[in-house]
Amino acid sequence: MSAVTSASDAVFAPARRMDPSAAAIELVDVSFAYDKRPVLQGITMTVPRGKIVAIMGGSGGGKTTILRLIGGQLKPNSGNVLVAGQSVPDLEPEALYALRRRFGMLFQFGALFTDMSVFENIAFPMREHTELNEELIRDLVLMKLHAVGLRGAAAMMPTELSGGMARRVALARAIALDPMLVMYDEPFAGLDPISLGIIGQLIRRLNDALGTTSVVVTHDVYESLKIVDYMYFVSEGRIIASGTPESVRASTDPFVRQFVDGAPDGPVRFHYPAPPFRTQLLADVS
Amino acid sequence: MSAELATGVFSWLRRLGATVTGTVGKLGYASRFLIMVLVLSPHAFRRLHLTLREIYFAGVLSLVIILMSGLFVGMVLSLQGYEVLSRYGAGEQLGIMVALSLVRELGPVVAGLLFASRAGSAITAEIGLMKTTEQLAAMEMMAVDPVARVVAPRFWGGVISMPLLAALFSAMGIFGAYIVGVRLIGIDAGAFWGQMQAGVDFWPDVTNGIIKSVVFGLAVSIISVFEGYDAKPTAEGVSSATTRTVVISSLAILALDFVMTAFMFRGIGA
User: Which strands make up the sheet holding A78-83, listed edge to edge?
Assistant: First the structure.
């Protein structure tokens, strides 16, 4: 995986799909549309067990939709989504909920329950899914909070937390039940540089310490390059490039370069498709 | 000109059709939602503290507005009622008039309207905001059904609170009528309470009032939770959902009240 690959010869392309036992997640030729608007077209990707894989791309490119498909909140129009060998779209509600118990998810703005304290937020999945006694729940919650450096904030309410702190609490909640898979939806969005670095390091450290698999949906290329094992670039619903951080840094692929360099124009156009400006200006207002 | 007219008519018909199918579709979705809430309701009772918490928020925190409104409605009813009754020399009948008005009609209806404005709107806003801030999605991803965990306790909290609030409204209204009628106007206390005791029957008067308040509780609660759950996840969406809750609940209460009253007192014109 030394070079960036385009979609047609992706490292984890279907013809060369890895051993299923080594794959935590597989998307096989997945297409999805909201009503008639296509969002994803022919997405094929594999997330190996124990690795951190980033799905990168501009806003509205279908990244979060991929997470929703993995979590079973959406069903693909065609293709299949396999998680731990199970076909997610075919699961009955009970089986889907059983699978989700093995997931953790960090939402873009934390999605902490605002009527519960930090402690109660992290205890929530434990109370819902286990029969642990209060003493054990307390110890586990404090351990999770200690792991994200916020043991001292246990009694605080979500409204009292800064953006970075809320994201860390949400991370502690996502790993509350030691999940096999953690999904991160824009974990770096809107954070100051210090918080951003902390979250990035926590994702890497917790992934390695817990032996989980992580999928990070983000557009923060610099922070991702530091922590992930593999990256997929998604644009207009298609995977247009993929590779390791080293290969991405060295890539000459125009899309990857535009993304890494933050160039305003390139394969991803600055202007949203529109009729010629002159035609539009001269058109009858009515 | 005729082509323009035809286009306009077709456009209007298209909009009308879209509105009708949209409304019918939403009614169908709301019905399925109600069934889902009922199916998942055992969860709300197995974990009673969730429902008790909602009874506190919907019921106990509505007490001030319900009791104060009941008091003033009773006092006004007493003033107006005495003025009319005394024209026919029946001022002593004030007790029974006030009690029947409150227990049969005003108690359930006004308490229902106040409940929709105070508690129903709060339930919609809370669930809508939970949706907007992805708290419901987070719950789903944690394999916790938000309908069982969030919606069902709020629904039953409202259903249980409403008849109790209506009863308290009526009681407070009668107390208000007593203050004005007996203490202020000077009607004999024995006549006031005696007429009331003789003229108000538990069945059908009080029972019908209770039935009405239970039905209003069911209607307001399902409208509130559904509008919150169905709200667009934006600030504007939550605001519209909250407004819809108050408007639809109020109209539903008044319409249901007419239908139920027609059935309850159907022999009246015979």
Answer: A37-48, A23-34, A78-83, A86-87
Q: What percent of chain A has pLDDT over 90?
A: 52
| Domain ranges within chain A, ordered by starting residue | 7-282
What ipTM score was computed for the predicted complex, to two decimals?
Answer: 0.80
- Residue owning tokens 């949706």: B131
Taking only the tens place, the pLDDT of each residue in B183-211 is 999 999 999 999 999 988 888 899 999 99
Q: Domain spanning A7-282: which superfamily? A: P-loop containing nucleotide triphosphate hydrolases (3.40.50.300)
What are the pLDDT digits (tens) for A18-53?
A: 454 567 899 999 999 988 888 999 999 999 999 999
What does the domain layout of chain B look like in residue ranges?
40-264
Binary contact (A100, B141; C-beta < 8 A): yes
Query: Measured between CB atoms, does B262 come within 8 Å of chain A?
Result: no
Residue B257, number of CB atoms within 10 A of its CB: 17
CB burial of residue A267 (10 Å; 0-12, 13-18, 19+): middle
Give A101's contacts in chain B (Cβ within 8 Å).
142-143
**Contact between A111 and B144 using a beta-carbon 8 Å cutoff:** no
SS3 A241: strand
Of B134, B135, B144, the CB nearest to A128: B144
Q: Which helix (H) or strand (E) holds A218?
A: strand A213-218
> Smallest Cβ distance to A107: which of B130, B138, B145?
B138
Nearest CB partner across the interface for B141, out of A71, A113, A128 = A71
Say whether B142 and A125 touch across the interface (CB within 8 A).
yes
